[in-house]
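User: Can you help me understand a structure? I only have the sequence.
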Amino acid sequence: MSVVVFDMDGTLTDTEAVWDQVRRGLAAEDGRPWPDGATQAMMGMSTQQWSAYLSDVIGLTGDAEECANRTIAGLEQRFRATGVPMLPGAVTAVRRMAGQWRLGVASSSPRVLIDTAIEQLGIADVIEVSSSTEELDGAGKPAPDVYLEVCRRLDADPRRSLAVEDSTNGIGAAKAAGMVVVAVPPHFNPPPAEVLRGVDAVLDSLTELSVELVQDLLAQR
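Assistant: Let's start by predicting it. Here is the structure, written out as tokens:
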């Protein structure tokens, strides 16, 4: 069976920049400089991985668990105040796909933020399965674990299923799982050209994610 699995941050929700702002704010609060490449390095990491990175590499005050708690609290505060920003066409695209396939979400966000985003986007009725990398022993993207777990729970063959991603690490995870990969490069830190050349389709926005396109891509497997 084929299914469609969406990434969350940067794919359905326009939150990658918010994550970066919150993390940089914590670094500034602790008097720590922001290293070159830190933002890109943490995209796709599991909670265990990025919180350790904040503690060990950037040098934020506290251990990894405290860094995770501070970051998640900052994000929850932002989302309560302003809502979860969604990307153009996200909800419509999800519902369009739900008319043909079972759907899942494979995200590096903590569980509480995944649930908040799904609720605020109003798509809980069509997202049958969601999985966070923090629930998989810290195996963050580009490891394939989170995509394989969603496919397993949907009783689907990942080699005949499709992932919608935005980031370099996310694309790597979906490809490592053997899935068809559609990339929707974000305005915030898009993947390099060589990464995008390795996917099955590159779209300008989710409004281009049509049933016909997905059917054609899956039929090539």
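Now, to help you interpret it: The beta strands are 3-6, 102-107, 127-132, 162-165, 180-183, 201-202. The longest strand covers residues 102-107. Let me know which part you'd like to focus on.
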